[in-house]
Amino acid sequence: MVEQISLNNIFKSLADPTRRDILAHVYKRQQTISELVKKYEMSFAAVAKHVNVLEKAGLISKSKKGKEQIITINGRSFEEANEYLQNYAMLWSDRLDRLEQVLNKEK
């Protein structure tokens, strides 16, 4: 159940294009919320809310440096989501392999 809640938070946070874009910026290099605000036409509070959703999902981590909050990517949640998706990738790969075998037999 805990895993489901974690996955739900991850996929919900990734559903928003602004959050995915924030992740792309933070993936390249750690950034402050102030740096992120300059990239978007929204208030500091709005960007901070997006960052908080990403943090709750475990996709990023925040740390303080003086008055600034430094945002860094957190790979563990991505690994968790990838493991979940890989199960379905293997399922479809197996099904497509079986379909190929059936089609080859019919030739």
Structural overview:
The protein has 107 residues and is of the alpha+beta class. The protein has a single domain (2-106), classed as Winged helix-like DNA-binding domain superfamily/Winged helix DNA-binding domain (Arc Repressor Mutant, subunit A, Orthogonal Bundle). Helix content is 70%, strand content 13%. It has 5 helices and 3 strands, in the order H-H-E-H-H-E-E-H. The protein has helices at residues 2-14, 17-28, 33-37, 44-56, 75-106; strands spanning 31-32, 60-65, 68-73. The chain has a 3-stranded antiparallel sheet. The longest helix is centred in the C-terminal third of the chain and has 32 residues, at 75-106. It is elongated and about 70 Å long. The relative contact order is 0.14.
Query: Count the helices. How many?
Result: 5
Mean pLDDT level: 87
Structural class label? alpha+beta
Could you give the distance between the termini?
A: 47 Å
Q: Rounded to an integer, what's the Rg over CA atoms?
A: 19 Å
Instruction: Write the H/E string, N to C.
Output: HHEHHEEH
The fraction of residues in strands falls at 5-15%
Major sheet description: 3 strands, antiparallel
Contiguous uncertain segments of 5+ residues: none
Q: Please indicate the count of domains.
A: 1
* Shape label: elongated
Total number of strands: 3
Kindly state the percentage of residues in helix: over 70%
Q: CATH superfamily, called what?
A: Winged helix-like DNA-binding domain superfamily/Winged helix DNA-binding domain
The CATH architecture = Orthogonal Bundle
The strand order across the widest sheet is 1-3-2
CATH topology: Arc Repressor Mutant, subunit A
